[in-house]
Structures are given as structure tokens and as C-alpha cells.
Amino acid sequence: MVKVLISDKLSPRAKEIFEERGIEVDVNVGLEPAQLKEIIGQYDGLAIRSATTVTADLLESAENLKVVGRAGIGTDNVDKPAATQRGVVVMNTPFGNSITTAEHAVAMMMAVARQIPQANESTHQGKWEKSRFMGVELFNKTLGLIGSGNIGSIVADRAQGLKMKVVAFDPFLSPERAKEMGVKKVEMDELLSLADFITIHTPLTDGTRNMINKDTIAKMKDGVRIINCARGGIINEADLLEALNAGKVAGAALDVFEEEPAKSNPLFGNDKVVCTPHLGAASTEAQENVAIQVAEQMADYLLTGAVTNALNIPSVSAEDAPKLKPYMILAEQLGSFAGQLTESGIKGIRIEFEGQVAGLNTKPLVQAVLAGLLRPMTDCVNMVNAPVIARERSIDVAEVKNDRSSDYHTLIRLVVTTERMERSVSGTLFGGDKPRIVEIKGIGIEAELTKHMLYTTNQDKPGLIGELGTILAKAGANIATFHLGRAEEGGDALSLIQLDAPIDEAILKEIRDLPLVSQSKLLHF
Ligand SMILES: NC(=O)C1=CN([C@@H]2O[C@H](COP(=O)(O)OP(=O)(O)OC[C@H]3O[C@@H](n4cnc5c(N)ncnc54)[C@H](O)[C@@H]3O)[C@@H](O)[C@H]2O)C=CC1
Ligand SMILES: O=C(O)CCC(=O)C(=O)O
């Protein structure tokens, strides 16, 4: 019998749905990691919220596990690459708690504007401190929205109802969507300088971790108020505390913390800080929505193989699957390569299929490219919803097929046009099933994309390889493979270096500071 464990507090509807579908369910909330590891081997499915952390170590003991279902949005508590490697589908429920979380952000903004929690506590103590609690109005103030996806766009709508002006920074926000939302699309620095209130609605990724720090706070208006109902770790808590103490930041409202559960935190006890214990999604309605949705999705997958809202696998029919499998990996890698390098709004992409691949069902491949491309920007993208998300973000997607082969018997080329540039990347299959990159920005290069890749563009001049090697050796970073390509002798060149382990930002900076280097970035696959 199929067996599921619910390891976080979910609405009882989830258990009922599993049971109605003939699935055995255990509910065991609050397990220590070691206890969970001990029992996880019995289960085909694991239903969680944010308290359970699904690590590579846990997955090693999960020999029967087929699906992890997150009743909620953020899946930063799940090691998705490790789950993918073990063939475990990771699903989330991308929309069930968006309204509730947006409402919490608005409530937190009001609470910090009028010091409601502090005034509440004082009044309960019988102090009647009318003059202590002087607030500010929201009317006519500028709200800076960082991240304008599902939750951010609802917050923008509600804030406009309160007659606030909304400016938004989101690399994926198109001018058309900004207009539709009634917000002004701005760059990050402009947002920081304009906003009276700043609210964050991005996932926690390598790109957003520590985004609000000493430097970004310095660019904010004096007396700014900051709201974070997204994820801890996006705001540097030590830097925020310093800015609160210096009076630069007038108040902060935080639902999420660097370390959760947050039992102690340097910001606790600070009179300018309003805190809630990760309550963004905590409404009866949202919890009912996400519990029902996750149970239905997991039951469908476990009983019929149907896939909805999966973050790490494509939806493909059983017949096409074996033929498409190596191409799916290649397509996702090409998208991910371009997505990780893209730092401005994408206007359009063109996917060209040449030779053998042009004769296959390329629809899932387009979806795989899009999912790879959009994943660095949003937790919610999967092979199924990637085209919808691309459409919502006004990204034009064009597909070109040519069954004649050129230099390679089969080739996928991705061309991404952003607000600033056009970038192409192509790949083929070696030996019928081994994905290889064969071209980047018109420059020929042959490389396998593995877990940690250092991508560098530079001028083709003697000495660079030695300098790169020296920096990496000094940092103890082992080079597994080294691939080079150049447009012409002495011209633009690039390298893809496969590393055994990631390198930190300081080493990357050293590489970027080399006179011959124009760009260097660590990519993960
Ligand atoms: N406090 C709570 O209980 C809850 C927190 N969340 C958090 O809220 C986050 C956002 O949720 P949704 O709006 O549903 O996700 P979404 O995927 O619809 O929107 C996220 C947006 O952030 C943008 N983004 C990514 N990197 C960015 C960057 N560096 N700068 C500016 N924008 C960037 C993306 O382009 C995207 O538009 C989730 O990832 C989750 O971590 C979600 C639900 C409940
Ligand atoms: O499940 C919760 O309470 C948290 C929800 C959340 O953070 C999410 O959906 O990303």
C-alpha cells in the first residue's frame, strides 16, 4: 500500500484526501532530523510545510520516497538537486497562500507605521502612553516593491487601494506588466532612493541572499521602514540592527528570520522592530487551500503518475519519455545556463532545433528550456507552468525547426534577447545521449555542464590561464576539466571550468579583477 508521511502541521483535510484515495497516512509533526531519517525509508510521499528540512542526507535514507509535496510556495527547505538526483519529484502549491501572505505584508506595514504591537503591549500594561506612539501615514507614501510576482503584485494592488505610490524592482517585470499593475518599474538603486516603505517578495536564492545589507541600506531614504514577509537571509540582520540603532531605518517588520525557528535573534527586543513567527501563510483559508492542493497533487502522482506543479521534472507522456530524456536534460541546461547569466529583463527567446531533434516532439523541450531559464528567478516555475510564466512576463518565445543538420547531427540553439544584449548558447548530444555545450555567443567550445562551473569571458591574450589556475589553486579549488574557446586570435574568448566544489565570492572577485577578464560567474547545474 502507498504510504505518506505528513511531517508538518497541515490542515486535517490533507489526511482525509489521502485516505479517501486509499493512501495510508502517518501524521508525525515536530520530529528531530535524526528521528525523521530513521523512519523516512517507509514512505512513498512526504508532505511538508517549512519546518521540515529535506536534506541530501535525509534523502539518502528515503529509499522508497517518490514525491515531496510542499504545502506552500518556497521550497528552499528542500534540496532540489539532491531530490532530482534520487528521482524524487518536488511539488509545491504556487498560488494557495499568495493572498494571505500579501495581506500579512500589508498588515505588517501598517503595524510598523503605527507601532501597533508596541502600543498594544503598553496599553495592556495600563500605561496609556499616547505621546510615545507617534506614527506615520501610508497615504501618498512611496512603497518600494522588491519582487513583483504573485505575492508582490497583490501587495501592489492593495497598497494602491491605500493610495500609496508603488515603484517596483524585479528583473523579470516587463514594462507592459508594470503598466497593467499600475506600478512604476525602476532599477534597484532608484527604488532604494525613492521608497518610504520597502517590502520584499522574492524567493531566497543566491541572487537575493543578503540583498538588503549595509550598502543597500545606505542608499535608502533616511527614516525608511522595511517589511520582509519573504525569507530570512534576504536581509542582513546585523546590518539592519546597526541601521535601526543609527536611526537610518525607522522601523522593520519581519515575518522571517535568518535562522528559524527564531528563538533568539539580535533584533528581538528592539522597540523599532515588529516580529511575527513566519505567519505569512497562516490563515484558515490559505492552509485549507494548500493542504487540499498538495494532497491531491501527491495522490495523483503516486497513484497515476500525473504530474502537477513539479519543480524538478517535466510532464511528458510515457511514449515520448525515453527518446526525449537526454534532450530534456540538454534543453534545461541550456536554459539554466542563459538564465543564470541574465541580469536584466528578458524580452524574447528563440529556440532553434536542427537535425535529428527537429523531428521529435519539441514542445516539452521548449518547456524545459523555459523552466531552466526562469528557475533562477522564481521558486514556482516548472516544466508545466514555465510557458505561462513566460507569457505573463511578456517574454516572446519563438521556435524554429530545421531538420537539415549543420556541423552537428542534432543541435539545440537558444538565443536570449534581454533589455541590454543578445546571448546565444547551443548544445548537442554526444554518443546519442550525453549533453554537451558546443557554442556560446557564437564562440565554439565543447564542455559538459556539471554541478559547479566557472564561466569566464576574457580577451585572448597569453597569461590568463596561468593566472586563473593560480587563483584557484591558492583557494584550494580543484579543476576537474578546463574548456576554452575564442572568436579569433587575440579577440573575445571564454572558458568553462569544471570545479569539484564551489568557490566563494572573494575568489570570484579576484578573478573578475584580473585585467583580461570581463565577466566571471559561478554556475550551478
Ligand atoms: N512568509 C510566508 O509565510 C511566505 C513567504 N513566501 C515567500 O515569498 C516568496 C515570493 O512568493 P511569490 O510571489 O509567490 O513568488 P513568485 O515566484 O511569483 O515571485 C517572485 C518574484 O521575485 C522576482 N525576483 C527574483 N529574484 C529577484 C531579485 N534579485 N530582485 C528582485 N526580484 C527578484 C522574480 O522575478 C519573481 O517575479 C516565495 O519565494 C517565498 O519564499 C511565500 C509564501 C508565504
Ligand atoms: O507553511 C508556512 O507556514 C510558510 C509558508 C511559506 O513560507 C511558503 O509558502 O513559502
TrEMBL record:
It catalyses: (R)-2-hydroxyglutarate + NAD(+) = 2-oxoglutarate + NADH + H(+); (2R)-3-phosphoglycerate + NAD(+) = 3-phosphooxypyruvate + NADH + H(+). GO terms for molecular function: NAD binding; phosphoglycerate dehydrogenase activity. The keyword Signal does not apply. Its EC number is 1.1.1.95. GO terms for biological process: L-serine biosynthetic process. Pathway: Amino-acid biosynthesis; L-serine biosynthesis; L-serine from 3-phospho-D-glycerate: step 1/3. This is D-3-phosphoglycerate dehydrogenase. Belongs to the D-isomer specific 2-hydroxyacid dehydrogenase family. Residues 453-525 form the ACT domain. InterPro entries: ACT-like_dom_sf, ACT_dom, ASB_dom_sf, D-isomer_2_OHA_DH_cat_dom, D-isomer_DH_CS, D-isomer_DH_NAD-bd, NAD(P)-bd_dom_sf, PGDH. Catalyzes the reversible oxidation of 3-phospho-D-glycerate to 3-phosphonooxypyruvate, the first step of the phosphorylated L-serine biosynthesis pathway. Also catalyzes the reversible oxidation of 2-hydroxyglutarate to 2-oxoglutarate. Keywords: Amino-acid biosynthesis, NAD, Oxidoreductase, Serine biosynthesis.
